[in-house]
Design brief:
Structural class: alpha+beta
Order of helices and strands: EHHHEHEEEHEEEHE
Helix content: 25-40%
Largest sheet: 9 strands, antiparallel
Mean pLDDT: 80
Low-confidence stretches: 1-7, 164-202
Number of strands: 9
Amino acid sequence: MASPADEDGSWTLFTLDVKSLRQNGPSCGLVALRMASVFVCSKETGGENVPSVQDILKVATEKGFSRKGEIFSCQHLAALGREVCNVSADVIEDPSTELICSAISYGKPVLIAYDADKDNSPCLLQGARAHWAVICGVALPSTAGLSDRLGPLLEKVKEVEQGRTKLECCKQSSPFTEEGRGVCCCCTWCSGTSLGTPREKADNRVMGICLHGKSSRLNFWDLESLLASNANLAQPRSDLSRVEMVVPEGLDGLKCKMIVISM
């Protein structure tokens, strides 16, 4: 396995086997919640007990959280997770790369809102294109200087290197584990795989491996850029109908917050 201290351009990937789900209408938050909930419930029930997006929307509508699937509040989405999906959903303020990596190391997917560019990658539009994503993994560059920041995750690298934990290798047919659900560690990112490669292989950047409702592909985004996009959320789009949708005056319910999903 490539060590994070190596400087050979390789990456160490930790992924949770979250299954993609496409959204219908402005239901990106509900879809993200269901994706994460199915994953955390999969070990006990296979995820079959998690309600459909339509069932979650029905409760969201009854509670006044949404009309067409839109969710502009972490607290509302977390409440739906607890009450409808029967999962633990903790709203964390002031999210950071370290907190995200810690959650992933314990097998907990993270929900986060951000501004989506034309290709749905994070951008800075002050909330005009607010969207939800599931962070279901991280990619660590093979560079020094990460141990202090990402201790829990790098401890898993040591366990693999010492033979205490056996995880899949990306040199096999797929870089993600197919047996069971949970954390998968891949030693090197192969540039030829269909999942794409991180846009930049720079010093100590940590990439988030993310899913969202507008694509079934995994996305590699710089976590600092994703967090900056979340922190820039200020106002919803001005053309959103407050008659057809539940739209707040501002986006304080999303800004500088994330939701950690677990059992």
